[in-house]
């Protein structure tokens, strides 16, 4: 194979990766938004059966809220919660809504990992590691807000940019994990 043919083949693979990444991201992110509307009673596409039996969005909220409340209590605060709210007694009131779930970051991660040419074993392992990392960071964010705003009462109205800070931290962590994964995957392919 000549150098020119190798370059064309590499360009073809790169283009295939970018197109697959884009399409998968649109599919996952818009699919989650659509499913959120299917499970929201006031929405146009509401379906009671799906909302009652297949509501993974509420399941993820609960899976984030319960351990976050446990961590808040571990720091000496008394906290109560319901399906989408955490209230730290004598502390902040936190609402966990759709944008707090990290589904956008998970959509990007899933799209990237599935579009990248790697073995299925490596792909599945990376998806699990990435999703667990996003989940743990998200629980820590919710608990951290409850704890920090419980200690620093004067800052409750000032820390409105936590979502952006969280996204930056998570994307840095995910890009670091992806970088290590790509390096490892390329070493396995080169051998």
Question: How would you characterize the overall build of this protein?
Answer:
With 191 residues, the chain is mainly α. The protein is built from six helices and three strands; from the N terminus they run H-H-H-E-E-E-H-H-H. The chain has helices at 3-38, 48-53, 56-74, 103-115, 120-151, 162-190, and strands at 79-81, 85-88, 93-95. The chain has a three-stranded antiparallel beta sheet, with helices on one face. A hairpin with a 4-residue loop joins strand 2 (85-88) and strand 3. Helix 1 packs antiparallel against helix 4 (103-115) and helix 3 packs across helix 5 (120-151). The two termini are 19 Å apart. The mean pLDDT is 89.
């Amino acid at each position: 194979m000549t150098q020119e043919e190798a370059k064309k083949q590499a360009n073809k693979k790169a283009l295939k990766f970018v197109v697959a990444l884009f399409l998968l991201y649109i599919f996952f992110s818009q699919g989650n938004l659509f499913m959120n509307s299917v499970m929201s009673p006031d929405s146009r596409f509401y379906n009671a059966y799906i909302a009652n039996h297949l509501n993974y969005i509420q399941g993820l909220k609960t899976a984030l809220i319960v351990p976050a409340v446990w961590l808040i209590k571990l720091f000496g605060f008394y906290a109560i919660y319901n399906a989408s709210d955490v209230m730290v007694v004598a502390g902040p009131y936190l609402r966990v809504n759709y944008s707090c779930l990290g589904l956008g970051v998970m959509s990007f991660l899933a799209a990237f990992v599935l579009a990248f040419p790697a073995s299925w074993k490596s792909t599945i392992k990376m998806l699990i590691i990435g999703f667990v990392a996003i989940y743990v960071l998200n629980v820590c964010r919710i608990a951290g807000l409850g704890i920090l705003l419980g200690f620093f009462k004067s800052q409750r109205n000032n820390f409105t940019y936590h979502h952006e800070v969280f996204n930056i931290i998570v994307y840095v962590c995910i890009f670091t994990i992806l970088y290590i994964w790509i390096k490892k995957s390329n070493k396995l392919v080169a051998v």
